[in-house]
Specification:
heterodimer; A: alpha+beta; D-Maltodextrin-Binding Protein, domain 2; Dipeptide-binding Protein, domain 1; Dipeptide-binding Protein, domain 3; 3 domains; 7-stranded mixed β-sheet; 6-stranded mixed β-sheet; 16 helices; 23 strands; B: mainly alpha; elongated
């Protein structure tokens, strides 16, 4: 064989092997180095006890190891290599990955003087959250918690007083428990959040409030990160952030992308729109213990008076999802057809229901009265887009059936105070995706309980489902709760919107964030193709 | 100054507590919902369940000891939060004022000297443009043109090296300067016109002095006093404008901290940032009074 032929074959084999090379998942990086810049809307100090903020927690989940991470809604091992759950669901035995080291080269662990992360660190971290009464440890977990014990250096036994079916849900479970070193907490005291130290894939470098957080690759992590550096850049203005994303000044916009921009980015071949996979509902809440809201017929009239699906589609653009209920498509407890059954546009039905209730236009001025007086209902909403547009559409729909609705737009703090005081009126609200969100809304002492949403049957169904480890019957309980909420309260729905985030295509092997931001795992290792940047 | 500072802190403390809303609930709303039991527990730990007068006395006592307290939102020391951002706001504001003086003064003076000509019309159109255009919109436009399409300047954030820092300062400072640019140009023109019509200027001309000497040696110093008064008087509005610009350009300043803290009901951060704003405005006015003496030696303070 001639040398030329050999070289051609060799070149072909090389090209073929490169094209078939596995992604970064097995630790091999197609291109090492580079900085991944993530745009976030705000950022707080990174103490897992106090960082009640998604994007801050994204940094924490890369600095500190977690017992587990969430991928596609399922837990995957991180610091815990594996775990067992007792049959009754009350005892969790976590097997800690050996050889995980705390970051060194800092004030706590000087270069080369780090130590292994052990089960005792996990126990310390859990009790640190449990003992701090102002920590963000979820009340449900706190109430179920019995003990955490290190049976040896690599085994932790967590005991609960009852089973918890949603241990892995952000709103209730263990996902807020990042593992910290006692030495670091004692060294930095209250300033730990400004100098976080962990054992995760990236080490903390610097924090400039309201500006950025810089992390660098931890070469001692059990998987070598492909990236050299990760920067969280704070960008409070969303339109400006969208320009920065297109200009390549940030590589991924980690927060919710507005519907209009999603449409634009879907047509941009340099960008990828990532679906977070957990639709969020937009709906109306009411003071259900006060007249006329205490009558289900009035709530039903409000639900049918507007074309919620059309309004939501117009305001949410490509992020719109038709539906109703406490959980969206893909989330446990979702009931298909709920919208058509309870919320379909039918102004004639609304008017007949109002007539039936005696809420009529007796003086002929075009507006309905109740007990001889004009019925003017305040509608409370927050002051950022698209909330005021939902209010305008609702006011307009009310006017079509002679119901006077008065917009009351204020900042979220003022609206929260009104809701807590149970002020009479209609509230525009958004749900939270995930089972924990359903529970936090409609469960005992739920977020809207101050407006009179108190129903023992719903509470029982949610309590039972939260402790039911059988997936099938739990789904049935959640669906029953969802359906009862709709039938009982007719919480007028507009529909859901998908949470989309957007990345530049030169960011590879990255699938977006869930409850934890997974940049380096057994399955994928984010890298930047600098040639495409 | 002390009564003023005391008044500002008392009024701010009272006003921010009058706004409905709970800092603990707002703090958590991005992550998950809290039960009433959890909210009460966290409020207790943070001292928010105490009666307002007790919270106020605690705040003032700590302030006199140099302790501004802790932020509810970040749980960091308020002094840390402020000191991390104050230099950035000062740099942005001072650069903008310099830009205003460098651009508005020559344009305004030239406009006055060439009154009624096309130069005057062009200058006043420029001033009208500055007064009429919303700064945040102008900022977005600059970002689109120079950041995205031309790719000359970074769209957001601060550069780390001196050159990068200077480049990242251009768009926000130009945008912020727009707030004062139109106003100062118009004031410079009208002030110069007024001085040029005074008797002593006519006398100087009658004595045969050259136009340059009359305009810049005799007229300009007197025309500067109203301009300085306007610039220092507008310093507070520039700080107010910085809030928007800092947000649009992701500039980590104290204005953004103040606004975010108002929305988060982070009481101590709001009270202390307003206190810092007040002190800054007082200091600028003091500096302005001192400058008067240098510009016009007839002005002396007892």
């Amino acid at each position: 064989m001639k040398l030329k032929t050999v070289l051609i074959y060799a070149a072909l084999v090389l090209v073929l092997s490169l094209s078939l090379a596995p992604a970064a998942a097995d630790g091999h990086c197609p291109q090492e180095g580079g900085t991944f810049t993530i745009g976030v809307d705000t950022f707080l100090p990174m103490d897992p006890n106090t960082a009640a903020h998604d994007w801050t927690f994204y940094a924490i989940t890369n600095i500190n190891s977690m017992l587990f991470r969430i991928e596609s809604g399922q837990p995957v091992g991180d610091l815990a290599e594996s775990w067992d759950i007792s049959e009754d669901g009350t005892v969790y035995t976590w097997h800690i990955r050996p050889g995980m080291m705390w970051h060194d080269g800092n004030e706590v662990f000087p270069e080369g003087e780090s130590r292994e992360v052990t089960a005792h660190d996990v126990v310390y971290s859990i009790y640190r959250q449990y003992d701090d009464t102002s920590s963000i440890m979820a009340a449900d977990l706190r109430n179920l918690f019995v003990s955490a014990e290190a049976t040896d250096d690599h085994t932790v036994v967590l005991t609960l007083s009852g089973p918890d079916a949603i241990m892995y849900d952000k709103a209730r479970g263990l996902t807020f428990t990042a593992i910290v070193a006692q030495e670091a907490i004692e060294h930095y005291g209250d300033d730990y959040g400004l100098n976080p130290l962990g054992s995760g894939p990236f080490e903390f470098v610097s924090y400039s409030p309201d500006e950025e957080v810089v992390l660098r690759a931890n070469e001692d992590y059990y998987i070598d990160p492909c990236l050299d550096e990760v920067i969280f850049r704070v960008m409070p203005d969303v339109p400006a952030a969208m320009i920065a994303l297109e200009a390549g000044d940030i590589d991924w916009w980690g927060a919710v992308t507005p519907g209009d921009d999603v449409g634009r980015f879907l047509d941009n071949e340099d960008m990828t729109v990532i679906n977070f996979g957990c639709p969020v509902a937009t709906r109306l809440y009411m003071s259900v213990d006060k007249a006329p809201f205490d009558d289900v017929r009035f709530r039903k009239a409000l639900s049918h008076m507007k074309d919620g699906n059309a309004i939501n589609a117009a305001l949410r653009g490509p992020t719109h999802v038709k539906g109703a209920g406490t959980a969206g498509p893909g989330v446990a407890g979702y009931v298909e057809g709920l919208y058509d059954e309870y919320h379909a546009y039918d102004p004639e039905l609304s008017m007949s229901l109002l007539d039936e209730l005696g809420i009529v236009d007796s003086d002929g001025d075009g507006w309905r009265e109740m007990d001889g007086e004009l019925l003017e209902i305040p509608m409370f909403a927050w002051n950022s887009d698209p909330a005021p547009d939902y209010v305008a559409a609702t006011v307009d729909a009310g006017a079509q059936i002679g119901l006077k609705i008065r917009p009351e737009i204020a900042d979220p703090g003022t609206n929260n105070a009104r809701r807590k005081d149970g002020e009479w009126g209609i509230y525009l609200g958004q749900g939270w995706c995930g089972e924990g969100g359903t529970n936090a809304l409609w469960g005992r002492n739920g977020w809207i309980s101050t407006l009179g949403y108190v129903d023992e049957e719903i509470f029982t169904l949610l309590d039972q489902s939260a402790q039911n480890l059988d997936e099938e019957s739990r789904e049935a309980q959640l669906q029953a709760a969802t359906t009862r909420v709709a039938a009982l309260y007719f919480e007028p729905a507009f529909g859901f919107f998908n949470i989309f985030t957007v990345k530049n295509n030169y960011v590879k092997d990255f699938f977006g964030g869930e409850w934890t931001l997974n940049l380096v795992t057994d399955d994928h290792n984010v890298w930047i193709n600098e040639d495409e940047r | 100054m002390i009564p003023l500072v005391f008044g500002v802190t008392t009024a701010t403390f009272a006003l921010i507590h009058l706004i409905p809303g709970d800092p603990v609930e707002l703090m958590m709303s991005n992550a998950r919902q809290l039960t009433q039991e959890e909210i009460h527990r966290i409020r207790e730990k943070l001292g928010l369940n105490d009666p307002l007068p007790i919270q106020y006395v605690r705040y003032v006592t700590n302030l006199l000891k140099g302790d501004m307290g802790k932020s509810v939102r970040s749980r960091s020391a308020v002094s840390y939060e402020i000191m991390q951002r104050l230099p950035d706001t000062v740099i942005l504001t001072v650069t903008s004022i310099c830009l205003v003086l460098v651009l508005a003064l020559p344009i305004g003076i030239l406009s006055a000297l060439k009154r009624g000509t096309w130069i005057d019309t062009l200058a006043m159109t420029f001033a009208l443009f500055g007064v009429s255009i919303p700064a945040f919109w102008f900022g977005i436009m600059l970002m689109l043109i120079f950041g995205l399409h031309l790719d000359w300047l970074p769209t957001v954030g601060q550069g780390k090296t001196p050159i990068e820092f200077a480049r990242s300062l251009i768009l926000p400072s130009v945008t912020l300067s727009l707030i004062l640019l139109g106003l100062v140009t118009r004031v410079a023109r009208s002030s110069m016109l007024e001085v040029l019509s005074l008797d002593y200027v006519r006398t100087a001309r009658a004595k045969g002095l050259g136009a340059k000497w009359v305009n810049f040696r005799h007229a300009l110093p007197n025309a500067l006093i109203p301009i300085l008064t306007v610039v220092s008087g507008q310093f507070a509005s520039l700080l107010g404008g910085a809030v928007l610009i800092e947000k649009v350009f992701g500039w980590p300043g104290i204005g953004r901290l103040a606004v975010d803290s108002i929305f988060a009901r982070d009481y101590l951060v709001v009270t202390n940032t307003v206190l810092v704003f007040a002190v800054m405005v007082i200091l600028v006015n003091l500096a302005n009074d001192i400058l008067y003496c240098y510009i016009d030696p007839r002005i002396r303070f007892q």
